[in-house]
């Protein structure tokens, strides 16, 4: 049985290796977790002669990687440097690869072999990996991106300098990495597809220092997830889920009709609708996650607190599976974006967050006479039920930190016009602002979701 291996993606390679290549032989051991990694994909515009040189380089690369794999296989060697010393000369003699790509071939072979050997420890038969994919890794020594939108790539026959086909407007996400000095180019790869050549440019930057974990310094944004309102924050931002649910219902109707039709063309239409539906949903969730993270930044939050998602509320009506999926995805997006700003995402026990009064702590089912409406039977506080829940969720993390540290610090919950601390009560964001917490009016930033 033959198995083919694509070269590893930049996000899975270790910082050890990237330093090894970007800084020559001076090795700095840096934990890979210290870096944020992103990939920007861009098409290459190549001339016929550049195309020939790329094709030859791809062929030679596969050959080189397979030579290293063969040698590693014979010697049962999966350590990168050991395999390099065994196979490097043979690759240089038998292929047109340069030194950098010869070393990379050894490393990729070692990685593929270790995967196979690890896997086969649990299997009766072993299969030698084979490199067949039309893809080749590049790094700072074999590739340079220039400001004029061209890239220099080493090939088996000198360097070529094709143009990057970047989006016309500066809206292209690639510019966020290309034009930003904070991101530096790291392991990348060139891939041939039916419709051309693509560079998967790997970028990395150091992770910002995570928020101070001590209870004294934390400012927490509480977020309640639901269906009618996809997300409600303790700062009274309401992100409606109505359009998403409406879109979902329409999609389900069309899907049933197409399935009933059962024809070939109905199947094609269904696949297309599926993709469209997924694109729409992701865009919607990205927009909501952006709003949540912007809220956290605007109120200087160190933490964003969600309910623990393994515990889904029983009151959730219909479309259960879809919304569970959407909530998880939303939390992933928030976490991914918040990390870039040094904001930590945490989860709290969801028990009673919808039935407990945020003002007095009284907990009762009767506090919530209707789905949207919270009205405390003890102290008379009324609020939107999701907003009350968001404050409970954030507050739970503020309290949790205090209990854990055993200190009486001043962790605080972010509200719309100020923060509230366990010991000092409400503090407005601005001293001039005489607003009090009870004036916090709900607002939304997804009214324009299309
Ligand atoms: Zn109350």
3D architecture notes:
The chain has 450 residues and is of the alpha+beta class. It has 2 domains: 3-206, no CATH class; 219-241 and 283-439, Nucleotidyltransferase, domain 5, CATH 3.30.420. Helices cover 39% and strands 21% of the residues. The chain is built from 9 helices and 20 strands. Strands 11, 12, 13, 14, 15, 18, 19 and 20 form an 8-stranded mixed β-sheet that branches. Strands 4-9-10-2-8 form a 5-stranded antiparallel β-sheet. The model is unreliable at 1-32, 311-318, 431-441 and 445-450 (pLDDT under 50). Bound molecules: zinc ion. Residues 357, 359-360, 362, 376, 378-379, 381 line the site of zinc ion (ZN).
Q: What is the topological layout?
A:
Layout: E1 3-4, H1 15-22, E2 35-45, H2 48-75, H3 80-94, H4 99-120, E3 129-130, E4 135-138, E5 143-145, E6 151-155, E7 158-160, E8 163-165, H5 175-178, E9 184-193, E10 196-206, E11 219-225, E12 229-233, E13 238-240, H6 242-261, H7 264-298, E14 303-307, H8 320-340, E15 344-348, E16 373-375, E17 382-384, H9 385-405, E18 412-414, E19 418-421, E20 425-428
Parallel strand pairs: 1-3, 11-14, 11-18, 14-15
Antiparallel strand pairs: 2-8, 2-10, 4-9, 5-6, 6-7, 9-10, 11-12, 12-13, 16-17, 18-19, 19-20
Helix pairs in contact: 2-3, 2-4, 3-4, 6-7, 7-8
This protein binds zinc ion.
